[in-house]
Amino acid sequence: MSEPQSVLVRQAEALELFGRRVHAIHDDQWEAPTPCTAWTVRDLVGHLVSEQAWVPALVRDGATVDAVGDSLAGDLLGPDPVAAWESVADASRAVFAEPGALDRTVHLSFGNLPADDYCAQLVTDLTVHTWDLSRAIGADERLPGDLLSFAVREVTPHAAELEKSGLFAAPEEPPPGADVQTKLLCLVGRRP
């Protein structure tokens, strides 16, 4: 379990950082490739919008994935992807900040998870995908140290399992003397 105050601070930081990158996307960059080989910039932002859109149902309402069904399937970006991001980011931030929210249990497709651990996973995903989006649109790729340290702590115990999920490339061995950002990117199969 993550420290509740710490995970909320990191969540706010990660949502804000990814949001700044979303606002920096130029109209002609939505179809650009990303380090996530099967995804365009629009696909990547759509993935994060979808992840955050699940938070109210799973955390606040205690719904199961089956109960939500396909109500959150399809293109959630609509004609204004930036507004779609802002809406789900605000809702996610508010839900996790509710009293007792981090003490709840979230019912995911692979089983039950403490809500604070679920939040930590979302923070880590936001952190890694902020780098992906930054690279795709030519924005500053440097990530804040606190977010990086948090994400490395979250990913390290699960790095070997990530590749097996089919959602991540094989981890890379970081070069000697690598900084924390390079270590994180190598853990999740990115080539910095």
Describe the structure.
- This protein has 192 residues and is mostly helical.
- The chain has one domain (4-142): Up-down Bundle (Four Helix Bundle (Hemerythrin (Met), subunit A)).
- It is built from nine helices and two strands.
- The protein is globular, with a radius of gyration of 16 Å.
- The chain starts with a helix and ends in a 5-residue tail after the last helix.
- The mean pLDDT is 92.
How do the helices and strands line up, and which of them pair or pack?
Elements: H1 4-23, H2 41-53, H3 55-60, H4 65-68, H5 81-97, E1 105-108, E2 111-114, H6 115-137, H7 145-155, H8 159-164, H9 180-187
Antiparallel strand pairs: 1-2
Helix pairs in contact: 1-5, 1-6, 2-5, 2-6, 6-7, 7-9
Key terms for this structure?
single chain, 192 residues, mainly alpha, Four Helix Bundle (Hemerythrin (Met), subunit A), 2 strands
